[in-house]
Each structure stands twice: as C-alpha cells, then as structure tokens.
Amino acid sequence: MDIGLLGQYIMNGLMLGMMYALVAVGFTLFFGVLDVINFSHGDVLTVGAFTGLATSLGLTALGISSAPLVVVIVFLSAIVCMSALGAFIARYLVLPLKSAPALNTLLLTLMLGIVLHEAVRLFYPQGANPQRFPSLLSTEAYSFGHFTLRVDSALLLLAGLAVIIGVHLLINKTKLGLAIRAVAQDEETAKLMGINFTLIVLVTFAIGSGLAAFAGIMHGLYYSEINFGMGLLLGVIGFSAAIVGGLGNIYGAIIGGFLFAALQTIGALALPFASAYKDVFAFGVVILIMAWRPTGLISEKVSERV
Amino acid sequence: MKTMRMCYSVVLSMLVAFVLASTPVSAKEKVKVGFIGPLTGGTSSNGIGGRNSADLAVRLHNANPNGKYEYELVVLDDECKPDKGVQAATKLGADKGVIAAATHYCSAVAIATVDTYHKFGLPVIVWGAVLPDITYGNNYKEIHRVNGTMINQNETAAKFMTGLGYKTWAVIHDTTDYGKGHNKYFSEYVTKNGGKILGTFGVTADQQDFTAELTKIKSLDPDVVYFGGLTPIGVRIRAQMDKLGLKSQFEGTSGIVSEAFIQGTGPLAEGVVAFREGAYPEKLPGGKYFLEQYAKQNYADGPEAYGAFSFAAMTLILDTIEKTGPDRKKVRKALDKVKGQDSIIGEITFDDHGQNTVALISKYVVQDGKWTLWEESEYAAGTRKLMRR
C-alpha cells in the first residue's frame, strides 16, 4: 500500500481513537469511585458540543473574531458547563441511589441521557438538523502524496494527548488524585482517613464530564458538524472501550479507545465485504476479546483501581 | 367542604355549558384524514414541511363554505424508522374514522408499511418516498404516489453527469432500501451511459466517521463522489471530504435537496449537484398560489422540497372524499381512476400501480447557499465551474 495512504489511515484512526479514549476515561473514572455505569455520558458529550457551538455563535454575535480567543472560550465554556452538569448528576441523581441496586443507577442514567439529547433536539434552534460547527482552527493543509495533514486535526490530536497526560498527572501526582485513588480503593477507609467522600465523587464526575465536553468540541472541530444523536454511538463505543481495556483502569480505557478505532479502520478498508459492516466487525472482535479476557486487557487489580 | 364541592360543580357545569356553546350550530359532518412523515430525527425538516403543507390543504378545504365535510388532520410521526412507521400505519388503519392518508417521506418506511395499509384497506397517497417498489413491488390498490420514483431520477442524473464529461464515479450509499435502490439504478444508468464506477461503499444510516471510506476513495481518485442517502450523513460526508482534501465533484440525490443540507455544510455546499423529480415550487403550475397560501399561515418552518407534493396528495384526497363521501372503498376506487387531474404539481395520472406518471426531473446545483435550478445557474452559463470541469 502507498505510504501516504497508510499515513492517512493512521491519522484518521488516531483522531477517532483519541475521541473514544477521552469518552472511555470518563466511564472508567465514574466506575472507579462509585462502581456505577453512567450511561448519560455520551449525551453529556452532545450537550457539551452544543454548548460550545452556542458559545461560538454568541461570540460571533458579540463581534469577537480573534480565532485563538474564541477557541479557548469555546473549550472553557463547554468544559466548565459540563463539569457542573456532571457534578450535578452525581450529587442529585447518582449519589442518592448509592445503596440501591446498580441496575437502578444504570437505568436512571440511561433515561437521563435520552432527556439530554431530546432536550437538545427540541430546544436548540433547528436542533433536529445537523449543525455546522465553525472552523476555528487553521484550515491549512499539507499534502504528501495521498496523505493530507490538516493543521487543525494535528492541533486537536496534540491537545487530546495533552489532556490525557494531564489526567494521568492529576490522578498520580496530586493530592486530589491520591484522594480519588483512595476512594476508589476503599471508600470506608478513605472516609476514616478524613477524605470528604462526597466532594471527591463530585470532582471525579466533574473531571469525567469535562473530558466528554472536550471530546465533543473536538468532534465538532474535526468533523465540522454536530448533531443531537452524536453521543449515542460514541457513548456505546466509549463504554465498550472502557470494558475492553479493563473497567476502572484509565490506561485500559485509553488502549481500548485506540483499539476500537483501529478495528473500525481495519474493518472499513481491509475486509473484503462492504464497509457497512465495520461496526459489526469491531464489536465482534470486542466480544471475542471479552470472552478471552473477561476483566479486560489490563485486568483490574482490586487494590489499584482508577 | 360542602361549599368546596358546590364550587366544583358550578365550575364544572359552566365548563360543560361553554363546551356545548362553542360547538358550531350548523356542524358539517366531521371526517378524519391522516398524515404520516418524519417529524423528529435527522430528516424532520422535510417531514415538518410536508406536515404543514398537508395541514394547509386541510385548512383551505375547511375554509371553503361549499365543502360538504369538515376535515380533521390526524398527524403521526414515523421518525424515518420502519418500525415506528408500521406502528403509525397500524394506528391510522385501525381507526375506522380515518378515510385516507398522505404518507411517508422515507422510502425505507414507506416500503415497510404497504402491507399494513393493504390489510386495513386504507387508501394512501405517498408524498415523498421515491423507492420504485413502493408502488411497483406489489399489486395493492390502496397505494398511490404523487411524486416520481428514483428510477427516473437516476436516469436523468446519469445522462446529465456523463453529458458534462465526467468519466469515473465512487458511490457511497446508505444500506437502507432507499440507499441501495439509488445505488442500483444510478450504477445501472451511469454504466449504460459510458461512465465507470470505481468503487461502491455501503454505510449505515447513523454513521459519524467516513474518513476510512473517503481515504479509500481518495486513492481511487474518481471524478465524482455519488451519494445515495439522506441529508444527515450527506452533510457529514461533504464536510469530511474537505478534511481529507478530496477534490472530486459531490453529487447527491433528492435525499439531500433540503435547506438543512445547506445549513449543515455552509460554504462547502457550493457547487453540489442533486436531482429531484417534479419542478421547484415557484416553477410548478400552481406553485405560486401554494407558496402564497403557505406564507399566510405563518408556519414556523418552510415547506421544504416535498411540501408541494404533500399538499397535492392531501388536496387530491380531500377532493375525492368530497365526491365519493367518507368511505374508504369508494375513495380507493375513485383514486385508482385519477386521470389528468389538475394539481399544483401539474396533472396527476395514476397508472395501474397507482404511480403518478411525472416525467419531469429537475437538476439542482447549490449556488450562493441556495438550491438553484441548473438551467438558471451560473454553472450552466459557464461563469462558475464544477469540480474537475
């Protein structure tokens, strides 16, 4: 195969993988601290992307056109709003159900997800239609044979990488991270050690939802288009990625995300049958991996969750 | 407590009196007619435009003092999903008060519901779906259609594009009956006209990422990317073509002829070509009248590409009921015999499959953010150029 073409496939896969990984890390963080599956996560991403879009339209209306400033404000507003939404979900919907069966939380967040994306559809102007996301980053492109590298895609990839490194440092090098790890490991002991359990849960949900918002804006900038249903499949894929990697382990989630993107890309280009089956292929392989390693690729050591 | 109860009963009796008083004295017989289309989901702009247009037909009929009946429009949502469509069709069919209906924009839904209408004996007129099998795949007398099929559409499309000198195509289609049908007929006609298909890619109707398919297409380097599918993924494919630096001409079908496509793609819509049966409302025989009446009702959304067909379908239903009376069988028989009936989309003649024999296909190109008839565009005049021309 042409080397430029191969490069293009790898770039496509990396972008896709970065988005999946960011979503998967959220799932795995929530599971780490509370042992819950938050199925509204994908729809939080949708709401985050629309918050970003609304912000950018608002800034344009205000006459602010400096692209770097707009990008920063768009990212910040989406991340801050979704962190708040995440903390709100944790405080008023997930924590009150803490002692109820896990199935209840799962159902509740599933329903909340529907409420969120239907709200976008109904209340965002023309929300049922695909919305164009403005190109805020440089659209310059460099071509090397069949490989076209867009500056905006490269920047997004680097920003995603920075965010993942940031999360890693936060979890492993800060006191907050230590507290999160402590809660994940053993809630009761952590409480006895003077850790404010509720606060840590809220912060963890805020971080996870902020990551989803970041992924949402990234999706918008990369595809130049967002729609109210975008979070559904992203949520399912992010969740599968987290499971395949080993739920509760953030490195597992990252690997799972990139693995899923790789499977989809391979499914679309290398298989003899139609590319419509690439999701069937990717999910099929995920099922096989789960049969082989039920606890995920990086299996969870109970003592080292998060 | 007693006074409270007294209060309630007084209020209640006042309410009853009010309701009774507000019923018109010279009540005409009420007749229900149905409308089904995608009112939510990605193609809802077309569905809502169709709904408003059908509603307009009902309002105009009800406002006519010479009408024998007062019509009530029962509106149901099929979400462009076959299962939801069958549910809605069953609901209309089971309601014996509903005499006839204008149904479906999405082909995948329309083809799934034909059996239901036949079973319930409910005469329907399809107002937007273009899959040939909806009328030609069965012998059900209940099914009629005012708009043309994708066969004519793709025949014209293939002739036109090869006529412009394009030689090679890559085809992307969604894997519903709609997308597969477009793929089948377009590939057939384009090959007949000397074009060559370099690759065909089936995609799911809710897919987000097309970079893998488009990268492969880029290496095939076709003159034209043909897309057989609806607006939501059409928007995504057009945007991602740009991201990958794929500079082929983008050609769509009637499925992307909508305002939503232009809003979703912005400047990238410029120069996209697509085809649709029937003429642009302004060009239709009664189009001006239709658009004026539509504007008077202050609907929040425009009639979109198929509003005129929905209006024509509903008007034909109401005119027929006026003649035959509210009886499903009589209405069905009368509809089967429709020949040369005047309407805002031109004369309607149903063949023995209930298919209107519209021959007219319009060619569109997006120019300055508007779907423009090809003949009137600067592209036809030569002042602007399509990709690779």
What does this structure look like?
The complex is a heterodimer of chains A (306) and B (389). Chain A has helices at residues 3-34, 41-62, 67-94, 102-123, 151-173, 175-185, 187-192, 197-223, 230-245, 250-269, 278-292; strands at 131-132, 141-144, 147-150, 225-226. Chain A is mainly alpha-helical. Chain A has a single domain (3-304), classed as ABC transporter involved in vitamin B12 uptake, BtuC, CATH 1.10.3470. In chain A, a hairpin with a 2-residue loop joins strand 2 (141-144) and strand 3 (147-150). In chain A, helix 1 (3-34) packs across helix 9 (230-245), helix 2 packs across helix 9 (230-245) and helix 9 (230-245) runs parallel beside helix 11 (278-292). The model of chain A has no long low-confidence stretch (mean pLDDT 91). Chain B folds into two domains: 29-148 and 281-358, Response regulator (Rossmann fold); 151-276 and 363-381, Response regulator (Rossmann fold, 3-Layer(aba) Sandwich), CATH 3.40.50. Helix content of chain B is 44%, strand content 18%. The longest helix of chain B has 21 residues, at 2-22. Chain B is elongated. Chain B starts with a helix and ends in an 8-residue tail after the last helix. Classes of the chains: A mainly alpha (306), B alpha/beta (389).
